[in-house]
Amino acid sequence: MGATQRIVFMPYVWRLKGKKRVLEPGIPVICRTETEALRWVEKIDNKSLSAAGGQAVKMLVDEEAGDYGEPELLASAGTVPPIQEY
Q1: Rounded distance between C-alpha atoms, residue 5 and residue 16, angstroms
Q2: pTM of the model
Q3: 3, 37, 57, 85: which one has the fewest Cβ atoms less than 10 Å from its Cβ?
Q4: What does the pLDDT average to over 31-37?
Q5: CB-hemisphere CA count at 13 Å for 39?
Q6: 10 Å Cβ neighbour count for 72?
Q7: Are 21 and 14 in contact (CB under 8 A)?
Q8: Percent helix, strand and coil across the chain, each rounded to 5?
Q9: Are 76 and 23 a contacting pair, CB within 8 Å?
């Protein structure tokens, strides 16, 4: 089948772990287009989505081979975890 492009909006939410508030990923939203993913980010900016923050990313995925390309950040809004480079 080969690699296909995936576009995902990843929301982040605050949750209580004991007495600490922790930023955790929410349920990812698979988007058909970059425009759709960017609309989700706009909802974070407009405060019309009850999430701490969110990121829209795209990447090449070959599910049969289990290969996942480097994600390309399209947009980000609100509170999101820092990007860690290894």
Answers
A1: 35
A2: 0.85
A3: 85
A4: 97
A5: 8
A6: 12
A7: yes
A8: 15, 50, 35
A9: no
